[in-house]
Each structure stands twice: as structure tokens, then as C-alpha cells.
Design brief:
By secondary structure, the chain is mostly beta strands. The protein has strands at residues 6-11, 19-25, 28-34, 40-44, 58-60, 63-65, 72-74, 80-82, 91-92, 94-97, 100-104. It has a single domain (6-104), classed as Rieske [2Fe-2S] iron-sulphur domain (Rieske Iron-sulfur Protein). The protein is built from no helices and 11 strands. This is Rieske 2Fe-2S domain-containing protein.
Length: 105
């Protein structure tokens, strides 16, 4: 895995509108989202507060809510917008080509 490499995550239709999936690669975990407008995004896969999997959380518009302590993050920017989350998520570029979702590492 090299810096800047595009990695295939899944078929575009595997992520429902206003949903999130978990994607593991090597020692890393990512969360890949599809918002209510149908846009795709990717962030680190763990909440920065308690290291719980965000893929188990709830997508609400452009927000992801952690399943453990209900901290929230803005999906496009990764910004922490509701305590106890206070540190932003790393975000990753996403593209959809030939009906497949890719993230850039």
C-alpha cells in the first residue's frame, strides 16, 4: 500500500443511501459512507473518542453518530461536531468508476 494509491472498496450499490460500511485493509480500518444525496465519502473507521467502529453508527444527513457515546462527526470534513468527540477524523478522497467505489490512501 503506497501513499496516494487508489484502492477498490466495493460495488457502488453495496452502500445504501444514508449508510456506512466498514472497510479493512492491512492493519487499518475505514468507514465509507453514502449520504442522503448519494455522495460517497471515507474517513478513518474508528471514533476518535473511544475507538468504536463508526460503521456500527448512524448516518444522519452529512453526520455520523458513534454507536457508543453518541459523539458526532461531519462526514465530508471529518470535523467533530458533538461531544464527547473532540478530535476530527482523517478523511480520504473517494471516486466512483465503472460502478465501483475507490478510496485514495
Amino acid at each position: 500500500m503506497t501513499n496516494g494509491e487508489w484502492v477498490e472498496v466495493c460495488e457502488a450499490g453495496e452502500i445504501d443511501v444514508e449508510d456506512v460500511i466498514r472497510f479493512d485493509l492491512a492493519e487499518r480500518t475505514f468507514a465509507v459512507y453514502r449520504t442522503e444525496k448519494g455522495d460517497y465519502y471515507a474517513t478513518d473507521g474508528f471514533c476518535t473518542h473511544g475507538r468504536f467502529h463508526l460503521a456500527d453508527g448512524l448516518v444522519m444527513g452529512n453526520l455520523i453518530e458513534c454507536p457508543k457515546h453518541n459523539g458526532r462527526f461531519d462526514i465530508p470534513s471529518g470535523a467533530a461536531v458533538r461531544v464527547p468527540a473532540c478530535k476530527e477524523l482523517q478523511t480520504y478522497r473517494v471516486k466512483v468508476e465503472a460502478n465501483k467505489v475507490f478510496i485514495q490512501l
